[in-house]
Amino acid sequence: MTGLRYVYAVCRPFSTPLQAQLSGVAGDPPRLLTHHGLVAVVSHVPEADFGEDPLRAHLEDLDWLTAVARAHQGVIDALTTVTTPLPLRLGTVFRDDSGVRTMIEAREESFRRTLDRLEGRVEWGVKVYVEDAPRQDTAASAPARPASGRDYLRQRRMQTKSHEELWQRAETFATRLHETLSEAAEDSRLHAPQNPTLSGASGRNVLNAAYLVPRAKSEEFVEMVDRTKDGVPGIRVELTGPWAAYSFAGEPSERQTEGEGA
């Protein structure tokens, strides 16, 4: 099959086969390209979609980008069950196998250092949200209708004070939780709070963190998070993972689609 080479990840050689019928980006099954003792996991993608100009245009198409991201993540998830992958940036494309080999040679030392650091480790994500509003089961639980302007202002002050107190509790809770989990993990990263409009999650995100945890200690880490989930009314804790260690992969900032390739 002809086409450009889409690269999902770099890892060390592994013997366990990937799951049968695994489909990658654009429907092509991933294959392993070994070079200098490292493995690039690649598949073929059409130049009509992944060449430099069409790819730039597609990055503005949310539906197309979502489909590519899901296929990309599916391959990474499959790799994570059999080895420790070093995920590459979404849309990493080269002209041919030679371009992939050149990339491996240029970044070989960095790849090896990072793979040594990530070996046997996974990423867990923890988010803390302040709920939008207390749940009300009946209309009777709603505030009484203000009898006057003074009553209205009093109710508004009480609501504002209650909201501010909840935010203070949430910030204190999130800070303590992050400190506790960071001590239990080998490394941690704080990400910017998620925009609820983009994430679709309810509530306001006050902690968005990732933790690098040895796979063998993941159960202990999960239990630690679970013990906090119902700790403070109005505050929600969400745990995701285990993931490949995206937050700790040390991806360089340079553009991954090579000028020579796509």
Structure explained in plain terms:
The chain is built from 7 helices and 9 strands. The longest helix is centred in the middle third of the chain and has 36 residues, at 149-184. It has 262 residues and is of the alpha+beta class. The strands form 2 sheets. Strands 1, 2, 3, 4 and 5 form a 5-stranded antiparallel sheet that branches. The protein has a 4-stranded antiparallel sheet with strand order 7-8-6-9.
Question: Biggest sheet, open or closed, and with what strands and sense?
Answer: 5 strands, antiparallel
Rounded mean pLDDT score: 85
Q: What is the share of helical residues?
A: 25-40%
Task: Kindly provide the radius of gyration, computed on alpha-carbon positions and rounded to a whole number of angstroms.
Answer: 23 Å
**General shape:** globular
* H/E element sequence: EEEHHHEEHEHEHEHE
What keywords describe this structure?
262 residues; 9 strands; disordered C terminus; alpha+beta; 4-stranded antiparallel beta sheet; single chain; 7 helices; 5-stranded antiparallel beta sheet
In short:
With 262 residues, the protein is α+β, with helices and mostly antiparallel strands. 39% of the residues lie in helices and 23% in strands.
